């Protein structure tokens, strides 16, 4: 009976293929790009409010976090607990990744402008 159903309605037995990224991070790496850095980035993007879902509504923190997990093959665990840890950081340490990114972009911009 099952085989008969499988052959007569194969669409019921096809699993949806999910996106599998080749990118990954090392969660507790020494380069400063660990999970808490991604929490900083995800929370900042969520607070900006410029990321939307297909239907036009703004993406939730969890939806943005899940996209990053899928893109970089890791798990935040409870993103809300990680967000609390982020805001428990000292003020000078709150935007560590974002500060590093800004500095890298400024450095690259100066380098490119000097080459002209």
Q: Would you write up a description of this structure?
A:
The model has no long low-confidence stretch (mean pLDDT 87). 8% of the residues are buried. By secondary structure, this protein is mainly α. It has one domain (23-115). The protein is built from five helices and no strands. The protein is elongated and about 70 Å long. Helix content is 53%, strand content 0%.
Summarize the structure.
With 116 residues, this protein is an all-alpha fold.
- The gyration radius over C-alpha positions equals 20 Å
Mean pLDDT across residues: 87
Kindly estimate the percentage of residues that lie in beta strands according to DSSP: under 5%
Helix content: 40-55%
The helix tally amounts to: 5
Which terms summarize this structure?
5 helices, 53% helix
Layout of helices and strands, plus pairs?
Layout: H1 2-8, H2 35-48, H3 61-72, H4 79-87, H5 96-115
Helix pairs in contact: 2-3, 2-4
